[in-house]
Amino acid sequence: MIRFSKSFTERTVNWRLARLFSSAMVVASASALLPLSVHAQMSLPAATPVPAQDADAPVNVSAEQMTGRPDRQVNLDRDVELVKGATTIKADKAEYRIIQDEVEATGHVWMRRLQDQYTGDRAEMNMGTGSGYVTSPTYLLGKSGGRGKAERIDFLSDDEAKVTQGTYSTCEAPDPDWYLRASTMDLDSGRDVGTMHGGLLYFKDVPILGSPWMSFPLSGERKSGVLPPTIGMTTNGGAEIAVPYYFNLAPNYDLTLVPKLIARRGLQLGAETRYMGETYSGSTNVEGIQDRVTGTGRYSLSSIHNQTLAPGLQLAWNLNKASDNDYPSDFSHSITGSTQRLLARNVSLSYSSTYWSVTGLVSKYQLLQDVDAPITKPYDRVPQITFNGNRYDIGGFDFSTTADFTRFASGDLVGGDRAYVTQTVSYPIIRPGYFITPKVILDATSYNLTNVTAGQPTSFSRTLPTLSLDSGMIFERESNLLGRSMTQTLEPRLFYVRTPYRDQSQFPVFDSGLSDFNFAQIFTENRFVGHDRISDANQLTAAVTSRLIEENGLERLRAAVGQRYYFVDPKVDITGTTTTTLGSKSDLLLSLGGQITREFSTDNTVQYSETLRQMVRSTFGIRWQPAPKRVLNLQYRLDRTYINPYTGVLDPLRQVDVSGQWPITQRIYAVGRLNYSIPDRTVAEGLAGFEYKADCWVFRVVAQRIPTSSTKASTGFFIQLELNGFSKIGSNPMEAIKSSVPGYQNVNLPDTMTGNNF
Known about the structure:
Structural class: mainly beta
Number of strands: 49
Strand content: over 45%
Number of helices: 4
Helix content: under 10%
C-alpha cells in the first residue's frame, strides 16, 4: 500500500436533496399546467449548518497499486480510496491529476460528501472548485434518510449542481411505494434555491401530483409558493378543495391566500397574515363567500395582536366578527369553532411593575343567536379598569389589593357603573408537616345604574368584611401497592369562613353566577363568581386526602373526601340559579383516581346530595393502555345541574363517552369516539376512521360528527396521505383525532408509553 498527502484548498458542496423534495410536494394536481413555486413552512426550524472542511486538510490516497509521477499524475488501481476532510471517494480505479486537483474514478464508485453518500459507474471531481459529475448515481442523504437515483449528477461548483432524470423517496425498499421524478433539477445552495423541470409525484407507480416547473428552497427557510392542496367533505357544503398560496413577504411576516371551492356553496376566498417582531406579534384571518345556498355574501374576520409598547406596557386585542348567526356552523370543521356563539372583541392596555399592575379593557361581544334556543347577550364592558397590587412577607404578612371600575352596557337593559376595592391581609404559617393561614378581607362596592324603571333606586353600595382560617396537616408512612414500595400520605384540611349577611337582592347581576361546586371551590371564601354577589358565610369545610406516591414522585393513587358545614344557612342568592344544598351541610364530594398500573388509570368524582339522597354530578372514567398505540377510554357523566348552552335552561345530562385507538392488523389502526346522550337517545358527538401505516407512508380516512346548534349537526370527512419526511396531501384529521381520543399516539412516530413501568 502506497500513501501520500498534499495540502490544498477545498470548499464543500452543500447539496441536500431531501429539502428539495420535501418542498416540492406542495404542487397542485397532476393536471396542473402552470409553473409552481413551493416553500418550507414558517414553523419549520432552519437547517443546521454543516461545517465547511478545513482548507488546509491533506489529501490521503491509498491503493493496492500506484503508478505515475507523484508531482503530476497518479494512477491508482484496486481498492482505491481518496480522503480529504469530509469527502471520501472509493473506486476500482482512479486517476488523480495533482496540478489540476482532479480525481477521475471508474468502477464501483462510492463517494461520501459531508453526510451524504453516492454510488455510480464513473465520477470526476475537482477537489479545488468542487465541480465534477457522477454517472448512473444512487444517493442516500444522511440527515433526512432520503434516497434516489439519476442518470447523472453534475456538480457545477461548490454551490451549484444539476440532476438529470432524478428520483427521490424516503422509502428504503428498492421499489419504493412513492417517489418523485424530475427531468432536471438545478440546485443553488449559495442562494438556497432550486428549480425543478418536469416534476411528477408517483404513488404506487401512478402519478398523482405534478408541474412542468417549480422552484423551491434547499433548507427550512420560507419561500413563496403553492402549499399542499387540502381535500375534504362536509354535509353542509359537500366536497371541497383548497389550494393555498404562500407569500414570504419578509423574514418576520407573511401572507397566505386560500381559495377554496365548496361544491354546494361556491368559491370561498380566505387570507391569513402573520407577523412577528422583537416587541410584537399577531395574526389576522379573513374569509368570504357569495353563498349559492343562501344567495347572500357571507364572511368572517379574526385578528389577534400582542405588543410591548415600553418596558411593562402591553397592548393586546382579540377581534372576531361573522356576517351571520350560522357562519361558524356552516363553514367550520372543528367542534370549538362550530359551537361558538359568542365572538369576543377585546382591546386591552396594561402596565405591570414589580408589585402592582393596572389594566384597561374594552370588551364587546357578537352574539350568534340560535333561533331554536335563544340566549341573552352578556354585558359589554366599556371600559373596565383594574388595579392589582401584591406584597409578600412584610414582617410575615402578605398584602393584596384589587380595585376595579367597570361600565356595563347591553342595549336597553339595566346597565351602569360598578366600582369596588378589595383589600386582603393574611399571615401564613408554614412548617414541616402543617400550615395555618389566617386571612382578613374587606370589600367595598358601589353601583350607579342607568336604564332603570321609573321610581327605582339608581345607586347601591356594600361594605363587607370576611374572616377565614385555612389549616392542614400532612402525615406520611411507608406502604405498598400491588407489592411495590410507596409513600402513603394522609392530609386533613379545615377551612373556616365568616362573612356577615348583607341584603343584595336589588343589586344588578352584570357578570356573576354560582360557582361550580368542586374541591377547588370549597376552599374559597365566596361561593359566587364575579363581583355582584358576596355570599354570607358562617361555615367550615373539612376534607381529607390520601395519596400513594412512588420514589420518583409519580402519584399512583389519590383519594379525597370533602364537605362544607353551615352553622347558619346562607341567604344571599342569584335569581335563576339552583343548588342541591339543603340543611346544615353541602353535598358530599368524593374523588378517586391515579395511574394504578402501567396499563390502567382511572379518574372518578362524585357530588352526592345527602338531603336528596342521590348523586347530583358524577364522572367515572377509566383508561386501559396495554401497549403503545393501543388505548381504550370509557367515561360516564351525570350532571343534574347542567345548563344547556343552546337553550340556557336546566337540562339534566347523562352521557356515555367511548373512545380508543386499536390495531386491527399489523398495519391498519382504527380510531373512534362515541359520545351518546342517554335521555335523548342520540349521538351528541362522534368520530370514526382508520389509519393504514406502510413503511414510508400513512393513509388516513376519518369522519367526524359535530353539533352546530340545538337541533342541527354537521359531519366532516378527512382524507389524508402522509409521505414520511416529505409532505401531506389532503385535509389534516390529526387535531380532530387528538381532541377526541385521549391517549392517542401518532402511528408514524416511535412507540412510547405514557405511564411508567409498574
